[in-house]
Structures are given as C-alpha cells and as structure tokens.
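Researcher: Let's run the pair from yesterday's discussion. Sequence first, then tokens, for each.
Model: Starting with the first of the pair.
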Amino acid sequence: YKTVVASLSAFMNSELSAFYFDIRKDTLYCDPPSSLARKAALTAIDMICDAILRWLAPVLSFSCEEAWSLYRPGAEASVHLTLFPDGLQAFRDDALAAKWQTIRDVRRVVTGALELERAAKNIGSSLEASPVIYVSDRQTLGTLFDVDLAEVCITSNYEIREGEAPAGAFRLNDVPNVAVVVEKAVGKKCARSWKILPTVGEDAEYPDVSPRDAVALREWKAMGVTP
C-alpha cells in the first residue's frame, strides 16, 4: 500500500505536475485545434488519466468513482469493474528516456539561472527571459538540436552556443559542460500566450498576439468558439 501510494504521488507531483503539465500547458491552451503537438498531448493525457484512475481506485474509491463517471460516462458503469491498464510496457523507450534525462539536466541549469535573475528582480516571469545556453560537449549538443528549449524551460526564446561560457555564467556542478546566461526577451508581449516575441503584431487581423496565436484564434472562430 505505502509503495503504491508513494510511487503514484511522486509520479503525479514530479513527473506530471512539475514537469510534463507545466511544459505542455502552453501547447494545450494556445495551439490551434489542428496542432499535431496539441493532439498528441491530449492523447497522452487521456492515457495517463485512464491509468491513474484505475491505479488509484482501490485507495481513493469514492473520488475515483466520481472522476471516472465524469471522464468516461459511456464506458464501464464503475471504475471498480475495470482492470488495471495492460500493455503500457510497450511504450518503454530507454534511448528516449536517456535523451530526455539530458534535456532535463539542461533545463535544471536554465531554471537555476532564472531563479537567480528572479531573486535579483531582473525578471518577473520566466517568459521575460531568453536564456543563452552554452554547451561545450558535442554529444549533449546533438541531443538538443531538435528540442524547443523555450518550450521546455518556459521562456519566450532561447539560444544555444557551442563552446565555453563566459566566467559569470550560471553552472551546476552535476551538469558539466552546460552554462547559462540569462538575457531579456526582445519584442512585445503576446496578449494570449504572454510570450515576449518580435513577431507579435505581424498579423493585421490580430495585432496583439503572435502569428501562432492568430492562427489559433482564426481556427476557433471558424468553429464558432470563443477561446
């Protein structure tokens, strides 16, 4: 009992709330309905919710029963009539996990640098920042080439530079070869995503948002929905 509850609590607090949901909320809230990333996130969340409700049902019986009736009203009459999820081991990918461990290590360095800037009152929200990330290790650099670190670190922009960082850059002892200098984001604040971008105002129909958000607003409008 203690092992299951502790494991699920750690998963929901650390992996979901503090990491996955924190990163993905911009995509979920602001991407257009046609966005593949948004659809992928909704699919992942659907699978996570289904599994967690079944796992927690023996522990939080009434709460999970109520949540299940709202989540899957057309499925089994009770979460307690279902089986624990099976087949999730097919999603295990050790190489992908190792890649994301590197990304999370880099994110920790960026987050540490942002916290110092926040404490010094140089920035308020992390979206006011555009970190410059210095990477002196070619393998780490290769891991980051297809990753949007602005999304992962919840900043408005970012830049990666190969090589040694200046002396005053922020470092963590357990993440060698990575250092960060925090710069202010350049541009105007998007009224929808709150990101500070030079592209805000490029869309004449929606001059107070970024082009991505303008596309989303146009799609929601065509569907007859006011986001």
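Model: Moving on to the second of the pair.
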Amino acid sequence: MTILLFHSMYGVRPAVRETAERWRAAGHEVIVPDLYDGRTPETEEEGLAVRDEIGTDELLARAVKAAAPYSAGGVLYAGFSLGGALAQNLALADRHARGLLLMHGTSDVADGATAASGELPVQLHVADPDPYETHDWLTAWYLRMGRAGADVEVFRYPGAGHLFTDPGLADYDAEAAQSAWPVADAFVAELDVRSAT
C-alpha cells in the first residue's frame, strides 16, 4: 500500500523519517513530501513563522502536487498536526483514498462536504486536552466528518502534549506514544488487507 505522510510545522524531523521507515519495513511504499524545502524549525515560534511565510494555500498546493503521481492507485493519507490537516483535505477530495490517519491534527470540514471515496476510514490520535484541538472543535469536527461519509475513530491521550509522539520535542509523552503507535500501525495494516481484497 502507498502511504503519503505529511510533516508537521516542524518539517521533516527524525520522528517523521522513523515513522516512514517503520511502515516501509512492514512492506509499504511511504512517500514523505518535504513541503518546507528542507527547513526544520527548532521552536514552535519558528515553525509557525515558516508555515505563515509559505502560506496555507501554498502548502496545500504543494501537498496536492506531491500526491498527484500516486492518488490514482489508492493512497492512505497520513500526517502529523499541520500535515494531518493537509492530509485530511486531500483524502476527502480523492475518490481513490484508502484511508486517513491523523496524528495530532485535523482541518475544518466544509458544510456539505462529502468524501469522494464514499465511506472513508479515519483514525485520529490527539492529546486531551490539546490547545490546537479543543473538545468543542473535535466534537464539531467528528460530526461533520460523519456527515461527509467518514468512519471515524478518535483516540485521546490525557495529559500528553500536542505532538506527543515526537521524542525530539518537549511535547513528547513516552507512555502516550507507546499506546498510540500500535493502534495506528494496526489501522495501517487493516487498510492494507482491505486494499488487497
């Protein structure tokens, strides 16, 4: 199965590459587009500055361009935080999308949006509470995704930081990460089995 994995506002960090390598070792083709042209900000402020300098419209355009060569064959879209928001936008618009794995981030769902692929399997892993993904936001997001035709599972990790799966960041929470990754990996494996039938 082909997986498109999008980085957070911190760029293509070691944790992103390690995730890609783990999935490659499981037999998947993993594409990691570098939407920041090699930049890897060290702080949240720097990451936000790079994101804002490029602009969300341009980041989405870069993500669409990166996905174009693969989408017709059926792709699992995945992303960390900002990358999750981009992955969500692509997955909802792609009639060949096999699924959507969101680590730490979501995007708005337009009223009347419909998953182009029909019923889209979606899994979200998020800190609880999360300053970027508040309870009210996630409740509304969950309902809108359901109306759009997504089959959504949400896993919350009490007390964890926003990017709790990245060992190189202050948000890292080893216990939460060790709980999240086996569930996420099982989701990827299940979608691979579905795609083979």
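Researcher: Give me one sentence on the second I can quote.
Model: The chain has a mean pLDDT of 95.
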